[in-house]
């Protein structure tokens, strides 16, 4: 029998076991027996009750207050949990909805561990909190498996995210709280104890992925359980809308007055911006990002216990294994992600092999293009298989990935890394090489829509002063920083003498050399010294101008035909957007919001009079396998389709927006992608390549409506 099951059977009064075999920390069904219990805005109600398994429990009502809580303290001295690994608490939610419960454990030195859990309505369960900091990132993924889970017949609610630190030799208190309830919330509690090891944490992640890469503890309509079922569902015939009324590129034949140049371009006509096909017809770009066959890779090395029935890494399956190192110390997205190197397995590609055998890649490309066209898409978006664009069935984009040994600057955000320093001559060289590579073989292809440069650069920092993050980071750099030297030169030209700058900024500055100090703490803009904000803004514009001009000049040098589609803004500043509008044919924003207009400053864009392309958007839920809901979450699969339709309708109805690209084609792996452990259900198809039927039908209808609506001027 499982050890933990045995422990909890001992708690049942009907069991032959005696509770004394594992001394309890406390018992909230009889709180005066073991530990001291203090109630702060919490009321103990009714008599002791017994759950279905006979375990004693007591009701506690958390009253409306800032933070009502139950505080448990040792009857004498401190608890010594130095040989323990888990806190275990019997809990049951008496409400008809989930109740948020916080668990804080304090030590005598003032340190504490903290976890927040949603206790679902329903039967009694065991809440388990590891006695150390942990998170799904520690297990190699960004979101952990759903809770509670069935741990050998015991409903278990594991705290998958625990923060803080604790001296386990001197534990002084346990605090159970409900944050700011608006009405009384009632929970039933029983015995509290500890157990050695991390058994529940291990069991929560054990065997969660089947041979097809699917979550083993869930059920959904597209889930498959055999190779035969995979082939039947994956090869279902694809039918789509008629393409009559459209030119070869997907442009509308009924919109007139546009220029025919032989290349995609942007044109303002009839009160709105349009993308125009090479044949001179209006084109609203409906795209999909990351249409690739190798997106199902997830690290398996060191966490083999998470996977059931992995194929052998030899013979026909060897092609779907690989190894690598994904660590990037400067990239915030990867920080704290364990299992980030070593051997990986590609579940998606392996399923494609199961579907189509040796020629699976060619079959996938044909099937995928058929699907995209049938679902009303007309563009292959960023990071997609180049062969799909070469097929000349759908227009496509190219990504300019600038990389090299050039200087960089921190804006304080740095999620995907530090900002490139465009004042470094090595950046200019790297940009030219990147554009040369990206344009090779496509500069004369009319099916190419245009180029994106980089992705989601950290133009701003975090927090209320985030707009100035790049300026503060520039001045904090060392004397060798080309950006810092360019900024100092700009200030010297404007102010001439350091004391003039001192007066304008309200700081003590004995000489210009004082700015060269590494870590220079530049002042935050304030009302008393308006010159600070003005100078910072001027620098941000100069920085952005230099970056976008450098890229634009390289594109025009290597490819004079195609659009520069911008830099896929996530965080941005007004200065960066204005510079992009000056040098790019289209300004692109990656918008994770309910509507496109909520993801960028629409008024500013209209004033700049520039077309906008939504480079990324999505809506995710957690009812189709992967644990994450993406950046913008909805409750279920049906709402994903509804949210997509609202977003696309709002985009097509905006006279400045010329297209929107969904991220991404395939669901992310349950245990996290290689790059950063992302593991969300945001795909058009699952890890098995089976489309999510209800969602793609909603997408098809929305895309057809958008194509019809977007051609009309305003």
From TrEMBL:
Domain of life according to the entry: Bacteria
Keyword Lyase on entry: no
Keyword annotations: Signal
Signal peptide: 1-26
Name the UniProt record assigns to this protein: Beta-agarase
Provenance organism: Rhodanobacter umsongensis
